[in-house]
């Protein structure tokens, strides 16, 4: 067998840096001890700049979906009207959660692979002719690799009706984008540990402004584990309401140190440089891209192979021969697209591995030489960053 260094390029989980792994393996401490309070206080605070939040960020010991659910149960009362932008599998996740608890759920469908058109969305809100309590959107819709125009959406929403709560699922991009709750008019911004924050799976994060915090305390929808008031009360004491994943909290602090060393602006710039380089490389391989440049995610890229056979060949051979794991499509895009994740601890040169492997595989599959073609395009873009 020929050896290739394994490379995990799925849009989560992502490779976990050694420094984080080490931190997560330190000896256990009691979660009701001052040892943990020190860890927790640091972790709640360390996430603030990553989320562009003024308040300490809540940390739940559960996967990202729990923060989606918490963002509904703590913002919307049972009789409220809520609106969900569905542009892919994770918009559908919001929809499924909403339909589990609420009767007045309005769905704004966006074609998969497209970003929300803000004026059309505001027209949709107007057409509902009802008072809407909250609007839910993905920031990056991971299943299509689209980034929605969140700042434009936030401002348009608040201009339309400033009482609407704007809730954003940033599970697959927080840690790789420039976001600011105040500037972008977001009330609640949620995320998970296993994507650009490059931790193992198992934590969910909730950032919120003061207005949302107030709302959490007024909402009457039944909830227990996901009652954010419990987390807020504990957070003030540098603690958590239930047994936390102590190891991953340590991981959060190790993550924050890595970001500090690199500089958050550099972290973001690296993600965009990789995105831009990879898109040019894929074009040089005569592969179509699902998403227009304007709305392309800095954390995941969706490509369309020329046929199902080509798609299966690429995915299987990358894994079997080159130890590179990428993702397929979800929902009706399953079997239609492939997704390359490039977030967290991914260097521009890591992506050269997948680009060069694709050159070899497509040269074989199409019986046409691509050797050197995609790498050249990739480096032409990435050299400005390097
Ligand atoms: C945008 C988005 N939202 C929510 C989730 C769900 O997170 P989890 O699988 O951690 O529950 C994911 C996971 O891929 C995601 O990408």
From TrEMBL:
Domain spans labelled Aminotransferase class V: 10-292
Keywords on record: Aminotransferase, Pyridoxal phosphate, Transferase
Gene3D superfamilies cross-referenced by the UniProt entry: Aspartate Aminotransferase, domain 1, Type I PLP-dependent aspartate aminotransferase-like (Major domain)
GO molecular function per UniProt: transaminase activity
Entry superkingdom: Bacteria
Cofactor: pyridoxal 5'-phosphate
Pfam families assigned to the protein according to its UniProt record, in alphabetical order: Aminotran_5
UniProt similarity note: Belongs to the class-V pyridoxal-phosphate-dependent aminotransferase family.
Entry protein name: Alanine--glyoxylate aminotransferase family protein
UniProt lineage: Bacteria, Bacillati, Bacillota, Bacilli, Bacillales
């Amino acid at each position: 067998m020929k050896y290739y260094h394994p490379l995990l390029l799925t849009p989560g989980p992502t490779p976990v840096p050694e420094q984080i792994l080490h931190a997560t393996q330190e000896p256990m401490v009691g979660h009701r001890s001052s040892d943990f309070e020190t860890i927790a206080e640091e972790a709640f605070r360390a996430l603030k700049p990553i989320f562009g939040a003024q308040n300490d960020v809540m940390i739940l010991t559960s996967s990202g979906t729990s923060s989606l659910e918490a963002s509904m149960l703590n913002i919307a009362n049972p009789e409220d009207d809520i609106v969900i932008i569905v542009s892919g599998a994770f918009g559908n996740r919001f929809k499924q959660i909403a339909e589990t608890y609420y009767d007045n759920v309005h769905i704004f469908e966006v074609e998969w692979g497209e970003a929300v058109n803000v004026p059309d969305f505001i027209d949709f809100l107007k057409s509902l002719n009802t008072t809407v309590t909250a609007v839910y959107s993905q920031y990056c819709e991971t299943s299509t690799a689209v980034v929605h125009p969140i700042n434009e959406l936030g401002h348009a929403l608040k201009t339309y009706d400033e009482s609407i709560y704007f809730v954003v699922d940033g599970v697959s991009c927080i840690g790789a984008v420039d976001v600011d709750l105040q500037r972008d008019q977001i009330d609640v911004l949620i995320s998970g540990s296993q994507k650009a924050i490059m931790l193992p799976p198992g934590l969910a994060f909730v950032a919120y402004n003061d207005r949302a915090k107030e709302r959490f305390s007024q909402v009457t929808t039944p909830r227990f584990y996901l009652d954010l008031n419990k987390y807020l009360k504990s957070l003030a004491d540098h603690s958590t309401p239930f047994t936390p994943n102590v190891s991953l909290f340590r991981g959060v602090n190790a993550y924050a140190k890595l970001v500090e060393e690199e500089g958050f602006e550099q972290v973001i710039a690296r993600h965009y440089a990789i995105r831009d380089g990879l898109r040019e490389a894929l074009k040089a391989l005569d592969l179509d891209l699902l998403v227009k440049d304007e709305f392309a995610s800095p954390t995941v890229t969706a490509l369309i192979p020329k046929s199902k056979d080509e798609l299966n060949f690429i995915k299987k051979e990358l894994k079997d021969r080159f130890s590179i794991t990428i993702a397929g499509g979800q929902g009706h895009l399953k079997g239609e697209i492939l997704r390359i994740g490039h977030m967290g601890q991914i260097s521009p040169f890591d992506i050269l591995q997948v680009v060069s492997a694709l050159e070899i595989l497509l040269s074989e599959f199409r019986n046409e030489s691509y050797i050197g073609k995609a790498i050249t395009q990739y480096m032409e873009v990435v050299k400005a960053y390097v």
